[in-house]
Specification:
4-stranded antiparallel β-sheet, alpha+beta, elongated, 27% helix, 248 residues
Length: 248
């Protein structure tokens, strides 16, 4: 039975690919499996309309993600010049039609959707090696918000999702983080990533124990700013050892 299931998956994949080019596909697979010593097969014709009906919930979910992404970026569909599709499933005409009907976007078919990710990785590798400096501009961003857990269990996001990095963050006044008592020389904190409000609902890195030393404080009476220079030695519970010290 397991071999029959594997064969059915293969047949379904072939049919899906074919239906991006033709309107119907005939499936003929004799002797697919045996029941009561009787060999049974599969004879059916699958149409593109039937396939599009099956995948419509996924297309709708994708459109909802597009709507949310545009809203979060503060952009209108008209701000997008063209769209590059990635992944073999985007070959389905229903996907392109849904994007055109909803947003009026121009679909860029110049890149093979099966090769888009690999080609992008190749361009990134070339750029990191010092090539294509003038042709390609790259910006590193954080895909998810990064922050620390507060006493009430909530996460205070320090670096927001889609924010360009490296980035410097300043906290002043009521937003500044402090120790709980005078003379405290160490602080334990958990770093989380995600968009949900409670830290327990987010992915977490290994808990860290940061030990601070070699502290120097420079206070500017005119501006009210205090600059603290220190060296951190970070203890990782995951690796049960200190991570190399870093200046802050």
């Amino acid at each position: 039975m397991r071999s029959a299931q594997s064969l059915l998956r293969t047949i379904a994949e072939i049919a899906k690919i074919e239906l991006t080019q033709v309107t119907e596909y005939a499936i003929s697979t004799p002797n697919l499996f045996t029941v009561d010593n009787r060999a049974l097969g599969l004879e059916v014709t699958l149409t593109r309309i039937e396939l599009e009906t099956l995948v419509q919930p996924f297309i709708n979910r994708t459109l909802a993600i597009c709507d949310a992404t545009l809203e979060k970026a503060g952009m209108k569909p008209s701000d997008i010049d063209q769209v590059l599709l990635v992944g073999g499933q985007t070959r389905l005409p229903a996907v392109k039609a849904a994007l055109r009907d909803r947003y009026g976007w121009t679909i860029n078919d110049s890149v093979n959707p099966d090769e888009a990710v690999a080609r992008g990785a190749a361009v990134l590798g070339a750029r990191l090696c010092g090539y294509l400096k003038e042709e390609v501009k790259l910006w590193d961003i954080t895909p998810l918000s990064l922050g620390i857990e507060l006493v009430n269990g909530k996460m205070d996001a320090i670096i927001r999702a889609n924010e360009q990095i490296p980035v410097t963050k300043w906290r002043k006044g009521s937003q500044a983080f402090t120790t709980q008592r005078d003379g405290q020389e160490s602080i334990r904190f958990r770093i989380y990533q995600g968009e949900r409000p409670m830290s327990g609902m987010k992915a977490t890195t290994a808990p860290l124990q940061a030990i601070f030393c070699n502290t120097n404080v420079l206070f500017n009476a005119r501006t009210g700013w205090a600059k603290v220079s220190l060296i951190c030695h970070v203890w990782s519970e995951k690796f049960n050892q200190f991570i190399d010290g870093a200046g802050i």
